[in-house]
Amino acid sequence: MRKIILGAVMAATALPATMAYADPPRWAPAHGYRAKNGDIAYRRTDNGIRYWDGRDGRRYCRKPNGTVGILVGGVAGALVGRAIDTRGDRATGTIVGAAAGALIGNEVAKSSARCR
Questions:
Q1: Which residues face 44 on adjacent strands?
Q2: What is the number of domains present in the chain?
Q3: Which residues is 61 bridged to in the sheet?
Q4: Closest to 52 measured CA to CA, from 42, 62, 44
Q5: Would you say residue 104 lies in a domain?
Q6: pLDDT digits over 83-106, tens only?
Q7: What does the buried/exposed string (b/e) look like for 30-63 if buried means 16 or more CB atoms within 10 Å of the residue's CB?
Q8: Residues 75 and 90 in one domain
Q9: In this structure, is residue 7 part of a structural domain?
Q10: Are residues 76 and 107 part of one domain?
Q11: % of the chain residues with pLDDT over 70
Q12: Residue 53: beta bridge partners?
C-alpha cells in the first residue's frame, strides 16, 4: 500500500513538470511581444526556409542549429569507427569515430540551409 501511495504522489508531482506551454490563440489578448510589435509575417524561400523582414529593413531567417546532424553523424561515426578498429575491445575506435562523425554531421547540417 505504501508503494502505491508513494507512486501516486510521485506521478502527481511529475505531471506538471511535463506539461508543454504553447502560444495563446490568435483571438486571445496579448500582453507581451505580440502586443507591442504585432505579429511577425513569415515568408518562405524556394528551399523552404522561413524568413521575416525586420524593422530595420534587414531580412532575418532561422537556420538549423545542427543538432540532428550531430546525433546522426555521431551514431554513424561510432559504427564506422567500431568496424575499422578490429583489435582489442574497440572502444577507442568507437569513441574517435563518434567524435569525428558528430563534427562532420554538425557541419553538414548547418551548411545545407542558406537564407537569401
A1: 50
A2: 2
A3: 51
A4: 42
A5: yes
A6: 998 888 888 899 999 999 999 998
A7: eeeeeeeeeeeeeeeeeeebebeeeeeeeeebee
A8: yes
A9: no
A10: yes
A11: 69
A12: 59
